[in-house]
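Suppose a colleague, Dr. K., hands you the sequence of a protein chain of 173 amino acids and asks what its three-dimensional shape might be. Before reaching for any lab equipment, you can write down a predicted structure in token form. Begin with the sequence itself:
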Amino acid sequence: MELISNAANGFMKLFQAGGNTFMGWVTGIIPMVICLMTAVNSVIKIVGEERVENFAKKITRFTILRYTLLPVMAVLFLGNPMCYSFGRFVDEKYKPAYYDSCVSFLHPVTGLFPHANPAELFVYTGISAGLIKAGYSVGGLAVRYFVVGIIVILIRGIVTERIYSAMCGKAEN
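The predicted structure, expressed as tokens, is then:
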């Protein structure tokens, strides 16, 4: 009988822990994400959507900007999954590489801008919780993730562009 009682108590503690985690999000992460989303959307409205679009079209001419600045802007301004819509500014032959750059940046951005991809917060908060417990600051981790993320999306964009180009060349033959 005691075994059944302990199992039932353990089962309920599992849901209590889930409820505590959820309340932490409701009082911490969720309001912060809403404020960040409001701020980013306000900046876009102040600058003007047309200006943002014209700027995006201009920068796609340059490889380094196509796979760094454009995906970063898209992820910060629109978040996941809307960031992929900035692909409309990119020539067809660059769309697969642009997509690869965007999708590769959705994790590194969460430390500084959690509104961009809230689903990745589970991963980031798990890693950062370990650092906090060890007595380290998570600010440095967030900045390093962001910088390394930009380097990685540039590399992935260029490599994917070349692979796609080679595959298209083989398909034409």
